[in-house]
Amino acid sequence: MMAQEPKIGTVVLNFRNYQETLDCVASLKQQSYSNHVIVVVENGSGNESEAVLHKAFDDDPSVALIVSQKNLGFAKGNNLGIRHAREKLGCDYVFVLNSDTIVPDGVFQEIVKVDFREVGAISPSVVDVEGNPSRPSENSDDILARIQFLRKGLLLARVLSLPIVRQLYGFYKKRIKRKTQVVSTRPTYGKYVLQGCSYFLTPTFFQYYTQLYPETFLYWEEVNLLLYLYKVGLHSVAVETPPIVHKGAQSTMTLGPESKYDRRKLKFSLDSYRASRPMFGMTYEEIKERYNGGDG
Asked: What region does 131 belong to: left with phi over 0, alpha with psi -120 to 50, or beta?
């Protein structure tokens, strides 16, 4: 029988910006929820991050520091922390958290109230630095339809990124008038909803899986997680909590990338989609056999 306060392990992936990681961990250490540990993964930053984080955490019993000499990407980097939290620290929940966040007190208390028997992932409330609610990275009643929509969007973005098409698209944009659309500020949530910058993997998730799908480097992690849940009949929920502050700017891929950043984002997204496709057609048993080990 689970203890009155389930053990929560928060995994924070550091890549280069160690000051954000230090600020994030400082907020986590202010939590009044007592059964909580922190795992920081230094993901091959190639700068002074490793030395700074060792100095900050080597003598801190509340923080476990794991160092990868290679940048493993988002999924595999977080998997190092997830497995450590589960196998070494005995955590019931794992909180996957971006380093550019600040966590207020009271979040964990709300998460453990959720009936997780059919729930694999839980998203807390998130706001930006100005206090505006942050919409979930994914929000759908039909994850398979969502994948098809994203696939079509990627292919369209790829076409629009071609030089001649990008020029025509830019010419077209200058001549269209955009109408202001009033939308409700009250969010509605589907069966598959996830805040990509912060989500909890529940004890039920770990009845089926040991880690995130490991084959992507950057992007598609949220979609793959929700597809994992779909394959075993679980869903995800959004819970009202004291809001986590996400300092990173929420951005979406533009149609017709016009900057180096957009082109890099498109390339990573396409690469991750291709890396994810083999899993789309796998059964749960095939996924379990291939990916529930250590590095696979």
From this structure: left
**Rounded to 5°, angle at Cα 153 from 148 and 156:** 125
pLDDT at 62 over 50: yes
CA distance linking residue 41 with residue 92, whole number of Å = 19
Whether pTM exceeds 0.85: yes
Report how far apart, in Å, the C-alpha atoms of 15 and of each of 57, 85, 125 are: 16, 19, 24
d(Cα 213, Cα 34) in Å, to the nearest integer?
Answer: 30
Q: pLDDT, tens digit, for every residue of 244-267?
A: 999 984 333 333 445 566 778 888
List the domains of the chain with CATH numbers: 8-142+188-248 (3.90.550.10)
Q: How far apart are CA 188 and CA 73, in angstroms?
A: 31
Give the per-residue pLDDT at 162: 56
Give the amino acid at 85: A
pLDDT over 60 at 155, yes or no: yes
DSSP state for residue 133 in the 8-state scheme? B
Give the C-alpha separation, 258 to 170, whole Å. 9
**3-state SS assignment for residue 76:** helix
